[in-house]
Amino acid sequence: MGGPVVTSRAELAQFFTELGVHPGGVLMVHASLGGAGVRAADVRDGLLDALGPDGTLVVPTFTPENSFTSRAYKALTAAMSESEEAVFRASVPPFDPATTPCPTMGVLAECVRTTPGSVRSGHPHTSLAGLGPRAAELLGGHDPHCHLGETSPMAELYAADAHVLLLRVGFDVCSAFHLAEYRLSPAPARRSYHCVVGGPGRWTAYEDIVLDDGDFGAIGARLPRDLWTEREMAGRAVLLFGVRKAVDLAGVQMSGYRHGLT
């Protein structure tokens, strides 16, 4: 795989514009910049230039570390004894939208999160951060008991007719597909989630649906090819598509075999 060499802010802005990012739009970006030879700040600025002053950039700033049942937490504690884990669990800092990093979400997400003027939603597990005039509107009402469903920014992005950019990543990380899970009938199974809020080691529980991204890559592979525009960057594909049609088609696929069960 080849593709054009794009490294500067201006080159990146042109690249995204030619892909189909348009001024005034709302864009959610999942990205992997490792090996791409670009700076996260230049990618952020190139995206903002392509979106223009009326456009809004959104990134996932998830914090799976703030959960003792997540893969991220289990990886952190895998080598600990039971007593060591108890001490660690009691010291886990609470989620704070203003300061909590998102180390598993990539350098672009962290770059956007820490940009002055960035807005971040308040969910302790599945927050999103954004820059632009609609960021507060889209991210401000995140129900702390709803990861990515009807009372989350994901539904707001759907209503806003937003686009998703998969920047050198695949459909397996396309979090918009989770909205399709919430819309399955019958409703998906539910489970308890745990997170730290309010103070170190202050674990609290809430219920939400069982999220399952295990089939997202296969769902994306079955979507019609005319759904997205595609280019290459540093040997990997870059895809741009509309949230609404992708979520609707993902839901049709899920309803055919999940039957509301995850």
TrEMBL record:
Record key words, sorted: Acyltransferase, Transferase
One protein family per Pfam: Antibiotic_NAT
Membrane-spanning intervals of the chain: none
PANTHER family listed in its UniProt record: AMINOGLYCOSIDE N3-ACETYLTRANSFERASE, SPBETA PROPHAGE-DERIVED AMINOGLYCOSIDE N(3')-ACETYLTRANSFERASE-LIKE PROTEIN YOKD
Family according to the record: Belongs to the antibiotic N-acetyltransferase family.
Record-given protein name: AAC(3) family N-acetyltransferase
